[in-house]
Amino acid sequence: MEFFKTTEGEYHMKVCIVGIGLIGGSLAIDLKRRGFATSIIGVDSNIHHQNIALHSGLVDEIEELQPAVEKSDLIILSTPVNANREMLPNILTWMLGTKKVVTDMGSTKAGIAAAVAGQSNRGRYVASHPMAGTEFSGPMAAIGKLFDYKHAIICDPELSDQDALETVIAMYKILNMRLSYMKSSEHDIHVAYVSHISHITSFSLALSVLDKEKDEENILKLAGGGFDSTVRLAKSSAETWAPIFLQNSAYIIEVMDNYLEKMNLFKKYILEKNQDGLKELINEANTIRKILN
Predict the structure, then answer these.
(1) Mean pLDDT of successive 10-residue segments in the chain (293 residues)?
(2) Contact at 8 Å (CB) between 142 and 22?
(3) Number of compact structural domains in the chain
(4) What span, in angstroms and rounded, lies between the C-alpha atoms of 84 and 104?
(5) Residue 99's domain spans which residues?
(6) Do 99 and 233 reside in the same domain of the chain?
(7) Nearby residues of 56 by Cβ (< 8 Å), 6 or more positions away
(8) pTM recorded for the entire structure
(9) Same domain for 225 and 96
(10) 231: buried, middle or exposed (CB in 10 Å: 19+, 13-18, 0-12)?
(11) Within this chain, do residues 175 and 200 fall inside the same structural domain, yes or no?
């Protein structure tokens, strides 16, 4: 089955998006707008999400999971990582004997890779993770150009059939994303160290402020740009992030232990009134500018 014509840049795919929230809805906008998808089938367990997605035009139809898979060329899983992991083996079974492709948008990869390691048509699955998002959730949060010029990670590409891999690469190119490749286990280590710890520290800071500052008016008055940018991620969805923390727990605990060591070092120097020690820690932290500049 030929999904697209690379010589003419034309795409003729029926795309099923499972989970019509921020990521799934934003995918729907640009894959349809940019001509990659001829139609979008939405699957979502939330009736309100279904109605919003259908009536706002994010999707062309709403369907149950198995019929949606049967109707589609490309299936994109953008539900919480535990749900992706649970669904994928069945989806691959329903895809047997076809050239359909399935990919997922999840922030953890080792667990879902292990869940389908023994399946005969494992090659129809492409593990991927677009590094894009906001702190908002649900179909009303979906926006166009969310993915433009961000990074997308494709994991274990050697385990995917070549045509399946090319289909997912073509999708990310349509989204103007920069591609990198990793092993699933390596991916989970690096996202724990960079992305997952950022969310935990943001949730923790928000909880600390709410514990210590009971006057909401003071929070509004005194919260400057630094506070706002630091706790922005604390607005993120619990349904999304609790499963991520559990699925990537070993690496997250490791980086949390390191983070607590740094916090305790700051605490020690403050108690000792050690200004030089504090300056040394801050100057060392400032070297992040060389990477992020």
Answers:
(1) 48 92 98 96 97 97 98 98 98 97 97 96 98 94 97 98 97 97 97 95 92 73 69 92 97 97 98 98 93 78
(2) yes
(3) 2
(4) 7
(5) 4-183
(6) no
(7) 139
(8) 0.90
(9) no
(10) buried
(11) no
